[in-house]
TrEMBL record:
<dbReference type="GO" id="GO:0005737">
    <property type="term" value="C:cytoplasm"/>
</dbReference>
<keyword id="KW-0378">Hydrolase</keyword>
<feature type="domain" description="Glycosyl hydrolase family 32 C-terminal">
    <location>
        <begin position="754"/>
        <end position="887"/>
    </location>
</feature>
<keyword id="KW-0326">Glycosidase</keyword>
<keyword id="KW-0732">Signal</keyword>
<feature type="domain" description="Glycosyl hydrolase family 32 N-terminal">
    <location>
        <begin position="53"/>
        <end position="312"/>
    </location>
</feature>
<dbReference type="InterPro" id="IPR013320">
    <property type="entry name" value="ConA-like_dom_sf"/>
</dbReference>
<feature type="domain" description="Glycosyl hydrolase family 32 N-terminal">
    <location>
        <begin position="656"/>
        <end position="726"/>
    </location>
</feature>
<dbReference type="GO" id="GO:0004575">
    <property type="term" value="F:sucrose alpha-glucosidase activity"/>
</dbReference>
<feature type="signal peptide">
    <location>
        <begin position="1"/>
        <end position="23"/>
    </location>
</feature>
<dbReference type="InterPro" id="IPR023296">
    <property type="entry name" value="Glyco_hydro_beta-prop_sf"/>
</dbReference>
<dbReference type="InterPro" id="IPR001362">
    <property type="entry name" value="Glyco_hydro_32"/>
</dbReference>
<dbReference type="Pfam" id="PF08244">
    <property type="entry name" value="Glyco_hydro_32C"/>
</dbReference>
<protein>
    <submittedName>
        <fullName>Levanase</fullName>
    </submittedName>
</protein>
<dbReference type="GO" id="GO:0005987">
    <property type="term" value="P:sucrose catabolic process"/>
</dbReference>
<comment type="similarity">
    <text>Belongs to the glycosyl hydrolase 32 family.</text>
</comment>
<dbReference type="InterPro" id="IPR013189">
    <property type="entry name" value="Glyco_hydro_32_C"/>
</dbReference>
Length: 895
């Protein structure tokens, strides 16, 4: 794939005593990025997963090349050997014998560069097989070849050594082989083996990627499926030797198409364990457009005849509007609609598709829709419906446009907070031509001698939201003969005394948190230690933020502005540092559709940074009979600072658009292992989301893989569903149970069952069966802490949904949409209960519910001290039929 720009407290649930630090020293001169001494890690860093694979250091995304051979499960993955952010994509490599414990190996396919250090080839996603019959001719009599097929990304025009010419930006399919179980690799001399997409799609050569290959025994041939990403097409090829490929067919578009299609897979499974009744499963990963926003994973069930995949009728959902009561279809004029518009949207919020300067608006119904791209993204305002009565369980609506969620703490209009400047120069005002040093700051790096910025610089997008005439703007590279974001350095203020409980200031620019490689941030230094930090939101519009500094009142401090980033949005904007008695309120920058009851927002949804509209659903069963309104809000002037809305319909069921493999936010690029023993089918995904992958607060690594899951097909409620369970070997990590319920127990709201038992920890497993009874909601609070941190995992009885709520889970300021509740529909079982298997790690929660047909995976970033576990209910008593909690050992315990 490619990058998208964008029991007791004394018993720790991580058995730290069994974790040997992986410290190593090497005095040899043989320095290599892949040398074992440079792959060491304590594996005890803050937020480091203890149950799931992460590389010791650096950036990691999609799983690749997953194949079983000679007792080893191979996991290759997209990897940057040179840093903690996306770039220099190579194939990292790890192996396991049980799909739980992993050993990281040297990089398998490293990025290629010329003598000047410029990238000539990156290795994007792909797959691997073992060629036991030596159809490729690469193998030896006693050593079958492991053959990888991957997408070669060529960033510039070039002629390869074999004479093939390549256009800049090409994504082509290439192969390499290994005769030593994947440890070393040889590229095929005639790469790429598929240089262009099939006939009719040649112009899509920059969007042709992610080949999955497998052996099709009925016809003794290899099958490859790849994607033409922006066209929502899966394309199928065949080969007898893995070198020469013939195009056979295509599939799509179908179901979720709100973003690019990536990382396909195709495999066969028995239905309900019947080997005489098998179905094929087609997997398509999508970004954006997932069920929780951003990245997601969908599947189709159907038939494959060796040439073409045909989905079953009940596996495909058409794009028609759901049956129900229409609230609005926006087909009449604005004056006839009864909706009320404000600001730039008055008399202008409806359009027939694209507006000037806009392209790709699609998947709306009828002729018109709400499109707030009135004067480009500079337009702001709201559109509010007449009042209506909620009469059904769901409101379904089509939504597209920008991903700018609602911030309940934000205000509509910018009102500067009261207070005083922290120090002279804290507002950056001064004489024209004055440098940052002239107004009292101490500069380093490229900031030395740089004149204080007065707004937008050179080709930068319009900068707004600062006060007065001046600000910090580190996008000044073009002024010194470099790219705008190419400059780095720091500005440090004079000492000041913290004499108020809050420091308020304006910040903008890139989202590159301090503490990670490539920071672009503002930090607070007390006793020369960074105690607070803030960064931008990938916007040229500055907004108010604040630090609570009550614990530091009376201490001397300094502000430091840091720009270490030379990539996209690799700059920082800052202004107006003030001491205040109250925290500053940020200004709303949302692009949202909101449901209002009694004038208050009860549900809100935003787009996915896509001009393709997709169905969203609100479960409003608990609000039946209430009067409500819909309000569409566009307060953003940043990129994708607009919202698209069409048909809004009340219905008795949610509008299903796809069969989702995971309903959480952090399961993407999922593909399966080839060649697993006994016909088993296992998969995992990248545990992240392109909405915030580059900003999560981890170091020295960023990104990792989910728990491995075994797949099966089961008939549930008369429909074949993909069912997932953790691999059996995960149970080997269990220590003696911390808590076991010996008999059923009724739990009332406020019950302290688990707290009384002093059950605590960071890494553990919960198995429970709950009967909600009269309660509207029931479940568990995990990773609870003294400062209000908690993550809720439970069942919403009114909505009929399983959910993870991470709105208070811990650190979340790195992305405005991270703090959210993610849910999935699941009816209660025949005995009115819900089964939950919850795996809690240091920085994630994975929930398997029902029979495994519903799974949610979410990252969380709580403090290590947040170790509480509680059972809770709302609105009534619940019956706990069974409950066991086990501590889990770290997979790194033997390192």
């Amino acid at each position: 794939m490619k990058y998208h720009f964008f029991q007791k407290n004394r018993l720790s649930l991580i058995t730290l005593a069994s974790l040997a630090l992986l410290a190593g020293c090497d005095n040899s001169d043989d320095y290599s990025e892949n040398h074992p001494s440079h792959q060491q890690s304590s594996y005890l860093e803050k937020y480091r997963p203890q149950l799931q694979f992460t590389a010791a250091k650096n950036w990691q995304n999609d799983p690749n090349g997953m194949v079983y051979f000679d007792g080893e499960y191979h996991l290759f993955y997209q990897y940057n050997p040179n840093g903690n952010s996306w770039g220099d994509l190579s194939w990292g490599h790890a192996v396991s014998r049980d799909l739980v414990h992993w050993e990281e190996l040297p990089v398998a396919l490293p990025v290629e560069k010329d003598a000047d250090g410029n990238v000539t080839q990156m290795y994007f996603s792909g797959s691997a097989v073992v060629d036991f019959n030596n159809s490729s001719g690469f193998g030896k009599a006693d050593r079958p070849a492991m053959v990888a097929m991957y997408t070669s990304y060529y960033p510039t025009d070039m002629t390869l050594d074999n004479g093939k010419t390549i256009a800049a930006g090409t994504q082509a399919q290439s192969i390499a082989y290994s005769l030593d179980k994947g440890r070393t690799w040889t590229q095929y001399e005639d790469n790429p083996v598929i240089p262009l997409p099939p006939a009719g799609y040649e112009s899509q050569f920059k969007e042709f990627r992610d080949p999955k290959i497998f052996w099709y025994a009925p016809e003794n041939k290899w099958i490859m499926v790849a994607v033409i990403a922006t066209q929502h097409k899966a394309v199928f090829y065949s080969s007898t030797d893995l070198r020469d490929w013939n195009f056979m067919s295509e599939f799509g578009p179908a179901n979720a198409v709100g973003g690019v299609w990536e990382c396909p897979d195709l495999f066969e499974l028995p239905v309900d364990g019947d080997s005489n009744n098998k179905k094929w499963v087609m997997v398509i990963n999508i970004n954006p457009g997932g069920p929780a926003g951003g990245s997601g994973n969908q599947y189709f069930i159907g038939h494959f005849d060796g040439e073409r995949f045909t989905p079953d009728d009940d596996s495909v959902f058409n794009g028609e509007a759901p049956v129900g009561s229409l609230i609005a279809d926006f087909e009449e004029s604005e004056s006839e609609s009864g909706w009320t518009a404000t600001k730039d949207l008055q008399g202008a919020y409806l359009s027939k598709g694209d507006r000037a300067g806009q392209s790709g608006v699609s998947q709306y119904l009828g002729e018109q829709l709400v499109n707030t791209f009135v004067n480009g993204d500079a337009s702001v305002g709201s559109v509010t419906s007449p009042a209506f009565k909620i009469t059904d369980r769901y409101i379904n609506l089509l939504v597209g446009g920008g991903n700018h969620p609602r911030n309940p703490d934000a205000v509509e209009d910018s009102v500067p907070p009261s207070g005083d400047l922290l120090f002279a120069g804290a507002d950056f005002e001064g004489e024209d031509g004055a440098t940052y040093d002239d107004i009292g700051w101490t500069s380093s790096g490229d900031f030395v001698g740089q004149v204080v910025a007065s707004g937008t610089i050179a080709t930068q997008q319009q900068v707004s939201g600062f006060m007065g005439r001046k600000l910090v703007n580190s996008y000044f590279g073009e002024l010194v003969g470099k790219g705008g974001d190419a400059v780095t350095g720091t500005l440090t203020s004079a000492n000041f005394t913290i004499n108020k409980p809050y420091i308020n200031f304006l910040v903008g620019g890139g989202n590159h948190p301090y503490g990670a490689e490539g920071a672009a941030a503002v930090v607070l230094l007390v006793d020369d230690k960074v105690v607070r930090s803030a960064t931008g939101s990938d916007s040229e519009s500055l907004n108010w933020t604040h630090w609570d500094v009550q614990e530091y009142q009376g201490k001397p401090a300094r502000i430091m502005i840091v720009d270490e980033n030379t990539g996209g949005y690799g700059h920082i904007l800052a202004d107006q540092f003030m001491a205040g008695d109250e925290p500053a309120q940020p200004v709303s920058t949302e692009t949202t559709v909101n449901l209002l009851v009694d004038g208050k927002v009860v549900y809100s949804v935003t787009g996915d940074n896509s001009e393709t509209l997709g169905w969203r659903s609100w479960n409003v069963a608990a609000l039946k009979g209430e009067m409500a309104q819909i309000r569409i809000v566009d307060n953003s002037t940043a990129g994708f600072g607009h919202v698209l809305v069409d048909h809004i319909i009340q219905s008795d069921r949610p509008r299903q658009i796809a069969n989702w493999g995971d309903f959480g936010s952090d399961f993407y690029a999922a593909v399966t292992w080839n060649g697993a023993p006994d016909g088993k089918r296992y998969w995992l995904g990248w545990m992240s989301n392109w909405n915030y992958a580059g900003s999560i607060p981890t170091t020295p690594w960023r990104g990792g893989q989910t728990l491995v899951r075994e797949l099966s097909l089961q008939t549930i409620d008369n429909k074949i569903r993909l069912v997932q369970t953790p691999v059996d070997a995960l149970k080997s990590l269990r220590n003696n149970a911390l808590f076991t319920l010996s008999e059923e127990k009724v739990v009332a709201p406020g019950d302290t069952l688990l707290a009384d038992s002093q059950v605590q920890g960071q890494v553990y497993e919960i198995e429970a069966e709950l009967q909600p009874g009269s309660a509207s909601e029931a479940g568990f609070k995990v990773r609870t802490g003294s400062h209000g941190e908690e993550t809720l995992v439970g069942y919403d009885a009114a909505a009929g949904e399983v959910f993870i709520d991470r709105t208070k889970s811990g650190t979340n300021a790195f992305n405005s949409g991270f703090a959210a509740r993610h849910s999935a529909p699941l009816p209660l079982s025949d005995n009115a209960s819900v089964a939950l298997r919850i795996i809690v790690d240091t920085s994630s929660v994975t929930v398997f519910s029902g029979k495994g047909e519903v799974v949610l995976t979410d990252q969380i970033f709580p403090e290590p001290t947040s170790q509480g576990i509680e059972i809770y209910s709302k609105g009534g008593d619940i019956n706990v039929k069974s409950l066991t909690i086990w501590p889990l050992k770290s997979i790194w315990a033997d390192k």
